[in-house]
Specification:
single chain, Purple Acid Phosphatase, chain A, domain 2, 7-stranded mixed β-sheet, binds manganese (II) ion
Length: about 290
């Protein structure tokens, strides 16, 4: 498929602007209205088939009160023989989706996004996925690479840190690790960010999206501080598609065929058991035969 570089850059810029100027957004947090429902996917990592299934099942045009939350779209398995990786294409589809349904589509900043913004190494099989991503953009845009790279960076930087609901849900890519929770800078969700916020290890953005294996008592503490009942994250791989970490933390993954997404009401009272009933496996969704396959 041939892409027009100006149109591609424009889609990323449009989506970045919609992210930044959304009336649902205040600083780094998007607050969803108390009507309809929300569907959230875990890490997607360019799983194109799951992305197709999610969009097909969510049917946004016919459900104007449905919100869709996406995270960690980049860095997947579409590598060519020269070590170029093609996830910019799925990122573009997500940006176009935001431009088409600005009120319904939302993103969460993830650690792979931040690594790509900073151009620093996450390694996979001895190769830097960020460099491979850049090679993919270079392969497909040649002398217009600079334009596209700048637009992609602007788009990734426009992602909020959290999405929350009035019935007590809090979505973020991960949770700060145990040792970071007690002194965590919770103002990060409600103020403009500076370079220090993104800093490796010490920055609250970095701590939020790189945190792992947080124990249930520390998740409780985090939730008390942000004033939410339940948290749903991605980030930690889940072989069966999901895992529960105590009574208030659900972890989901959407980057393999056993992966899941979550559907939750924006109006009903929720607990972890209600959330579990809203999980749906991608394998359970059949695309119609005329649906384009990726
Ligand atoms: Mn992650």
């Amino acid at each position: 498929m041939e892409y027009n570089p100006d149109q591609v850059a424009e889609a990323f810029q449009c989506a970045a602007e919609e992210n930044t100027l959304s009336p649902l957004r205040a600083e780094q947090t998007v607050s969803l209205p108390a009507e309809g429902d929300v569907w959230i996917a875990g890490d997607l990592h360019d799983h194109r088939r799951n992305f197709d299934k999610l969009l097909f099942a969510a049917d946004l045009p016919n459900h104007p009160q449905r919100h869709l939350v996406l995270q960690e779209i980049v860095h997947g398995d579409h590598w060519d023989e020269n070590g170029a990786e093609g996830s910019w294409e799925t990122l573009l589809r997500a940006a176009e989706l935001k431009c088409s349904y600005p009120h319904q589509v939302h993103f969460l900043l993830a650690n792979h996004d931040l690594a790509q913004i900073h151009g620093e190494g996450i390694m996979k099989g001895g190769q830097s996925v960020c460099e491979a991503f850049n090679l993919g953009v270079k392969r497909d845009f040649a002398e217009r690479t600079g334009l596209i790279q700048a637009a992609i960076t602007e788009f990734l930087l426009s992602f909020p840190l959290a999405v929350r609901t009035s019935n007590g849900l809090f979505f973020s890519h991960s949770v700060p690790s145990d040792s970071e929770v007690p002194n965590y800078d919770y103002t990060v969700f409600t103020r403009p960010l500076t370079g220090a916020d993104y800093k490796r290890r010490t920055g609250p953005v970095y701590q939020l999206i790189w945190g792992r294996r947080t124990t249930p008592p520390m998740v409780d503490q985090f939730l008390e501080k942000v004033g939410a009942q339940l948290i749903v994250t991605g980030h930690q791989p889940q072989e069966t598609g999901f895992g529960i970490n105590g009574e208030r933390h659900l972890i989901i993954a959407s980057d393999h065929s056993q992966g899941v997404f979550l559907r939750a009401s924006l109006t009903e009272p929720l607990d972890i058991h209600v959330l579990l009933e809203g999980l749906r496996k991608f394998v359970a969704i059949d695309l119609p035969v005329d649906q384009p396959r990726s």
